[in-house]
Structure prediction request, 551 residues.
Amino acid sequence: MKLIRLYISVLLLMLGFATSTAQDNRAFDALANDFPELMKKFGEELKNEHADYIFAIDVSGTMNKYEKIVVPALKSFFRSVQDGDYVSVIKFGGEAKNEPNGFGIVNSAMRQSLVSYADRVYDKPASAEERKKFTAYTDLLNMLEYLEKDLTRTGRNNLKFVFLITDFLNDPVAGHPKKLRLDDYRSRIEKELAGKNIKLVALELPKMGSGETSTDDIMNAFSMFKPQTIPVSNEQALQSWFDQMKNDIALEKFKQFLIGKMTQEAGATINSVDVDIDGHMSMTMSWVPNDVFDAITLDSISITDRRMHLVMADEDECEDHPELKLPHLMSSDGSEESFVNIAQIRGNDENLFNPHFEKPNGRLKAHISFKVPYEAELIKLMGKDNQTIEASIELPQENVFCHPMAFKWYCIMWILIIIYILSVIYCIKRNCSDKYKLRGEYILTQGTKKICTEEINGRVSNLTIDVEKAECNVVFKQKKYIAKLFVPILHWSIEPKYEVTVTNSQEYSLNGGDDYTSGGSSTIKYSTTIPLQIRDPRGGKDINLDIDGNV
Prediction:
């Protein structure tokens, strides 16, 4: 029976030891529930993120009556402290100090020592001298000066949590003022603790005497760290607050961990930008990822020149070149990417009748955001929207043609217009020259006798020769003839040939009505009539030659 009892006692002792040394991971479990994506990526690394926990505990006078409030909460908290964190317990009354087993880097053995020390923290010192030092006075200034030394020790963690457990009634030793004057103290710690992340909480126990507390004075001294004051009335309230604090500490450590990961600022750079004469713009970009933001999205681009605007690549271009469609997820390794003809710079005042050149001024801006699967969790944890940045570069001072038509097609259009105008001028000049007029030699005979010969220069192709009451034959003998007309532009080099017809008149029939025809055929563009008279040198009747051109 005795052996059974001994076995049970040993078992309970071992169970108690295991409980006191086992790390409480409930705060980490809560993080995993609230931030699954972040913890999936950083959970293992977060275990290496450490903090300092500094407890300044008032053990003076009758403060040991709060032992039942403070000790259970302390022990529960010590069990939750992560391996690698640092804990320092400062007990103070008239003096302040760390005691053995009350400070150190946490591991299983240190955790057990801290839990055991919490049971003894309110024990009265053995010697009368020590009892006088710690129970006769409550010197808050001594506590603050010792706290300053603890906070400024080197080789410790940047993130520090400070808990002041007292009623904040100042009962100083001889030579120290009753009313705290902490202006110099504040200036000193502000310099010494610059860059540290310190969370200070005043756990205000019920007053054990009369008088004004120094809570506000101490809070003002640490105001740069935004301290909190928590009134503590009973064990349950303190335990509940410490339980909540475990989660808050885990969150704060997570924040500091992520801030550390983002120390290397993720950024993007526009390496180059080119603009052609039509405003087509190409650019190259690269970026630097960090551990938190390892994916970057180019959301949009813009220019600062108010005289001009950007026209983005259309759907067909984006289909052939997917990188031109914005937002665009860039490569995860941060390597340089090219965006050919991503946009076109256009003038705000361009129109068909105002072709002109302009040089873009200002900068090209790339608007960038970091797209990660835990974006919503980052917003929830860090309290701000996902990080966005902006990259920019000076626009090249190159002339840009401002017109709805591309510069190439605009030039081709004017070249064709000029060719047409020159062709028309050429045709007009050609067709007005003697070389291209209708030329013919008309010979008037009677029998075998030549009466006269006349050179005719006309501008038509159909000739009607009207001979009134004359006993004669008219012979048309062609030389060279071309009528005046406007030649279509594509045929300006072709020398035209036209049909010339000698027809009967109503008054007289030429050799029995025969028609004399020569030359090729074409189309005459206009009509005119030129009356000519050929006089018979022997005194006969005049011969009227009507040169009639018909369209």
Observations:
- The chain is about 30% helix and 30% strand.
